């Protein structure tokens, strides 16, 4: 791109979904309340943190515990629709990004069908929903047994390599004409750490695992409590 050519997109905003865009983590909620329970999930979580388990293997065990207890996918989604709330600043952030032609792209280790259902429930405006692009894992449903299991997006130890997704998006013709140094990523957990390698500014949610990891590994980040903080920071940079 020539130096005097204005980029089509002033920035790109990438974000995790569960616990970042939403106030609750839908996968943790399902596991704790319908699946193996909180204590068992914490054992797996500790394994992820100490390296004895990959995120991919642990997360599959968590979600499988829900299906194994006889909860079909549609009932799980119904439960989440009743309990998951949106970050109070997210909708305003999407509205502003829409007006500025800044793509909003969800990069999640969760389930695409769940995210789409929650998005439709939490953001009623079709033009805002359609503006948000979703990259997440899929679900395989066995209609004969009414059971389901996660179908990972790739073969990485995370099941969805967010770093690779961000790199793929930023070279796609649809998004490649964006301002240099303006790839933003928002996250809260272990699965978000790979995204830090391909973003220019990392927003990490206060009090969550991503902040702890960033401190331990010396990764630069900006702490946030809600998307209102993220929006205020981005406005200063655009």
TrEMBL record:
GO terms for molecular function: phosphatase activity. Keywords: Hydrolase. It comes from the Eukaryota. InterPro entries: HAD-like_hydrolase_phosphatase (IPR050849), HAD-like_sf (IPR036412), HAD_hydro_PyrdxlP_Pase-like (IPR006384), HAD_sf (IPR023214). Pfam families: HAD. PANTHER family: PHOSPHORIC MONOESTER HYDROLASE (PTHR28181:SF2), UPF0655 PROTEIN YCR015C (PTHR28181). This is Uncharacterized protein. It comes from Pichia inconspicua. The lineage of its organism: Eukaryota, Fungi, Dikarya, Ascomycota, Saccharomycotina.
């Amino acid at each position: 791109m020539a130096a005097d050519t204005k980029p089509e997109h002033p920035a790109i905003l990438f974000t995790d979904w569960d616990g970042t865009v939403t106030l609750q983590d839908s996968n943790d909620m399902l596991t704790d309340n319908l699946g193996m329970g909180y204590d068992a999930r914490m054992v797996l979580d500790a394994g992820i943190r100490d390296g004895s388990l990959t995120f991919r293997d642990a997360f599959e065990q968590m979600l499988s515990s829900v299906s194994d207890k006889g909860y079909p996918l549609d009932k799980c989604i119904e439960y989440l629709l009743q309990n998951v709330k949106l970050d109070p600043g997210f909708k305003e952030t999407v509205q502003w990004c829409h007006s500025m032609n800044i793509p909003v792209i969800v990069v999640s280790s969760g389930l695409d069908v769940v995210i789409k259902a929650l998005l439709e429930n939490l953001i009623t405006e079709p033009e805002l929903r359609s503006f948000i692009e979703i990259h997440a894992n899929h679900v395989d449903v066995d209609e004969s047994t009414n059971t389901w299991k996660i179908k990972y997006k790739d073969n990485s130890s995370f099941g969805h390599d967010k770093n690779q997704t961000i790199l793929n998006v930023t070279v796609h013709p649809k998004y490649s004409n964006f301002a240099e140094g303006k790839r933003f990523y928002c996250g809260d957990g272990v699965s978000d750490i790979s995204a830090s390698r391909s973003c220019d500014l990392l927003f990490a949610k206060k009090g969550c695992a991503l902040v702890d990891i960033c401190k331990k590994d010396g990764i630069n980040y900006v702490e946030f409590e809600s998307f209102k903080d993220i929006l205020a920071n981005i406005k200063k940079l655009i």
